[in-house]
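A quick aside before the break. I want you to see a complete sequence-to-structure record at least once, exactly as it would be stored in a machine-readable document. Don't worry about memorizing anything.
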Amino acid sequence: MVINKKRRWHVVPGQPLTELDKKVKYWEDKGKLVPTRNMIRTPEEIEGIRVAGRLNTGCLDAVEAMMRPGITTQDIDDTCMRYCEENNCHPSCLNYEGFPKSVCTSINEVVCHGIPKPGEVLEEGDIVNVDMTIDYNGFYGDASRMFIIGGKTTPEKEQLVRVARECLEIGAEAAKPYCFVGDIGHAIQKHAEKYHYGVVRDLCGHGVGLSMHEEPEILHYGHRGTGMLLVPGMVFTIEPMINMGTWQVFIDADDPYGWEVITGDEKPSAQWEHTFLMTDTGVEILSY
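That is the input. The structure line, written in tokens, reads:
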């Protein structure tokens, strides 16, 4: 048995151990990766994150209401900017490490981080992921949805979009208090590979709440009992990126910003993302 030499979980000196302390220390003593105490959100922080999540969901609702053939991805960005201005919140993607727009719009073979463009017109049968993160008073909500433009596409794309959503739901079902990140990834990978789909490995879900990206990394593939222990009070995203073909990806060489991620074989990709709070009984959705 390998014991962590540097402890991450610190108990409060002079205070009796809580049930949370006992359970986390049990796994830490077995050599497992455990969270730090400051990754556990206070009730006040959870309420702030919950408000940001509701705003983020509302923004995606506004996008869903305007989705139709003939609009541009810039129209989507304009809708998100207008929503944020009207609701006194901030689009977190805007100017994040050089990202030039307020939202990510990823069409067909674009896995994620697609940049909205005035001349990029959505056509009937396209599948597009819209990924939004909102900052409200220093709290963050993060989610993405898939849209089938015109409501109908090829059977192959329809199945991909459906299975990607099932992967998110199955991952959420696997997320139990005192489970491990690998339990989530194992469940997602097992379901996706039934359809011979690739699960992207170069990108992952993440902690979120007081900043846009926090610990832990939520891998969407892997083995049970691996990765970080997940305990009540942690907030994180699950956002599997499911490719029709290979799991491998590359950065679009024509993207001057170096953001757009493309499937390695340029087959379609689909992704759904929610922000979750881990509770004593399972996960609560904070943004969808």
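Two observations worth writing down. The two ends are 40 Å apart (CA to CA). The chain has one domain: 38-287. We'll return to this after the break.
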